[in-house]
TrEMBL record, chain A:
It comes from the Bacteria. It comes from Aquipuribacter nitratireducens. It is a multi-pass membrane protein. The chain crosses the membrane at residues 15-34, 41-63, 69-92, 104-124, 149-170. NDH-1 shuttles electrons from NADH, via FMN and iron-sulfur (Fe-S) centers, to quinones in the respiratory chain. Couples the redox reaction to proton translocation (for every two electrons transferred, four hydrogen ions are translocated across the cytoplasmic membrane), and thus conserves the redox energy in a proton gradient. This is NADH-quinone oxidoreductase subunit J. The keyword NAD applies. Its main location: membrane.
Automatic annotation (TrEMBL), chain B:
Keywords: Membrane, NAD, Oxidoreductase, Transmembrane, Transmembrane helix. This is NADH-quinone oxidoreductase subunit H. The lineage of its organism: Bacteria, Bacillati, Actinomycetota, Actinomycetes, Micrococcales. GO terms for molecular function: NADH dehydrogenase (quinone) (non-electrogenic) activity. It is found in: Cell membrane; Membrane. Belongs to the complex I subunit 1 family. The chain crosses the membrane at residues 60-82, 94-116, 136-154, 166-186, 216-234, 246-266, 278-299.
């Protein structure tokens, strides 16, 4: 605590971190309290942005900035899709983000207890420890980024391939509809002509 | 401690001054020299106008969206080095700028949605369609200077241009960057989300101070984009004879003037026409640009 009193910048950082943490939780709660799809989506975006900025405060600049970038982009698109495709037109009528409330509450509480218990009970190393890199935080980092790295790197192209395959399979119009049976029709027959006349 | 407060205030004042200059130039180019007063007259008019109240408008999202443009512009400008020194020397300034230009997505859509009116909503959706087409080329255009400077920190990118401005080495990236800036400030050829055919689109229901904040935000975004482009491609405050901050100011003003003047030369592009141009022309071009820049960077590192 002594360096908090002597160093005003450090104090600002601590206050900013806890303020952002509180904002993340409050915005997260609002996701389940508000009844408008647009508001709910942007409450979730706010929660993620607060987490991203908290990461920036603890000097994880790149991950923090990318979190803000990805989450705002994702939620901006998600709002459009949710409003388009959700049944009963929930965007235009009051809706509720909670479904199957009892099982959901049980799962949520159990997950929270496990994660919060883990965070509080595991004897994390302190930065002031004499041998940095010997404690449990480093061990978690090694486990994820070391031997499991191959899995991590394979998962992302696999997910991407699945996405592309899913879109191709679900696509209403194929290249034969666009370009004819011999794929020679130019320009393509599109319901919505594009800017370069392809 | 006093500097920590004065610096952001100065930044806000400079950005608003640049935005006012851009708005004035815009009016002069469109309506003739006598229109130089237009932004100030509009400010006076809007300051006296009453706020319009709309039935079941989502006021929270509407106001946040409106303020979001100005806030995003300020947060962009905060990482721009002026004469080698930014307000906030973030180690990932380039990514930060990118994150803030994505915040504009949310802001413009909320602005369109919040009014609970058809024209605004149409404008909001138009903007997202447009954003999906310019954003990826813009991202790769931002990557090129970062690769050449081997850093995401804006002060490093600016310093790396001491010998040669990046616009010479990567003209394609610079042009695509300019397209992105005009795109996220909903200006000129990319003003379709606020188009006259939908009675002003996202601007349609705005009145009084709310309208002022949004319009100021649009010009501030253009100004922040120009300042960032000057730091990223036009030497970043490096040049002969003059001190760094003068170079920053001159290059920023020059780029801002070009971006505003482009409005007179180019027609408005519809988002559905721009999709193919963005994905099939601009994106491959920027990828090729990043490839060339990367090869040059590797060769230079090997030679040194």
């Amino acid at each position: 605590m002594t360096d908090l009193v002597t160093d005003p910048l450090r104090l600002v950082e601590v206050v900013a971190f806890w303020a952002l943490a509180a904002l993340a939780v409050v915005a997260g709660v609002l996701v389940f309290r508000w009844d408008s799809m647009a508001r709910v989506t942007y409450a979730l975006a706010t929660s993620f942005v607060a987490v991203g900025l908290a990461l920036v405060v603890v000097d994880l600049h790149y991950i923090g900035a990318v979190t803000v970038l990805m989450m705002v982009m994702e939620m901006a698109i998600m709002a459009v899709f949710m409003i388009m495709f959700m049944g009963m037109n929930p965007a235009l009528m009051p809706m509720d983000m909670t479904h199957r409330k009892r099982p959901a509450a049980v799962v949520a509480v159990a997950t929270f207890v496990v994660l919060a218990g883990g965070a509080l009970l595991v004897p994390w190393e302190r930065l002031a420890d004499p041998v940095p890199g010997a404690g449990s935080a480093s061990a978690v980092g090694e486990a994820v980024m070391g031997p499991k790295m191959l899995v991590m790197m394979t998962v992302s192209p696999l997910l991407f391939a699945t996405l592309v395959a899913g879109v191709v399979l679900a696509s209403h119009r194929t290249r034969y509809d666009r370009l004819g049976d011999d794929l020679r029709r130019r320009p393509a027959d599109d319901p919505q002509p594009g800017g370069v006349g392809r | 401690m006093a500097e920590a407060l004065l610096f952001p205030l100065g930044l806000t004042a400079v950005l608003l001054a640049l935005a006012a200059l851009a708005a004035g130039l815009d009016a002069v180019l469109v309506e003739g020299p006598a229109a130089w007063r237009a932004p100030w007259q509009e400010t006076a008019r809007l300051a006296r106008q009453r706020r319009r109240a709309l039935a079941s408008a989502d006021r929270l999202l509407w106001r946040l969206g409106g303020a979001g443009l100005l806030v995003a512009a300020l947060l962009m400008a905060a990482v721009v080095p002026v004469g080698g020194r930014p307000v906030a020397d973030v180690p990932v300034g380039v990514v930060w700028f990118n994150a803030m230009d994505v915040v504009v997505w949310a802001a413009v859509w909320c602005l369109g949605w919040g009014a609970n009116a058809v024209h605004g909503l149409v404008g909001g959706y138009r903007f997202l369609a447009q954003a999906l087409s310019y954003e990826l080329p813009l991202m790769f255009a931002l990557t090129a200077p970062a690769v050449a400077a081997a850093s995401l920190r804006m002060t490093d990118v600016a310093a790396a241009q001491a010998d040669r401005w990046f616009v010479v080495e990567m003209p394609v990236a610079f042009l695509v960057f300019c397209v992105g800036v005009v795109g996220f400030s909903v200006h000129g050829p990319f003003a379709h989300p606020a188009g006259a055919d939908v009675h002003g689109g996202v601007l349609a229901e705005l009145s009084g101070v709310d309208r002022w904040v949004v319009q100021a935000g649009r010009y501030a975004l253009l100004a922040a984009g120009a300042a960032f482009g000057a730091a990223l491609f036009l030497g970043g405050g490096t040049g002969p004879w003059l001190p760094g901050w003068v170079w920053s100011l001159v290059t920023t003003l020059a780029l801002l003037a070009v971006l505003v003047a482009g409005r007179r030369l180019l027609p408005v592009v519809r988002p559905d026409r721009f999709v193919e141009a963005g994905w099939l022309v601009l994106l491959p071009l920027t990828l090729a640009q990043v490839f060339v820049v990367s090869v040059v960077a590797v060769l230079r590192a090997g030679g040194a």
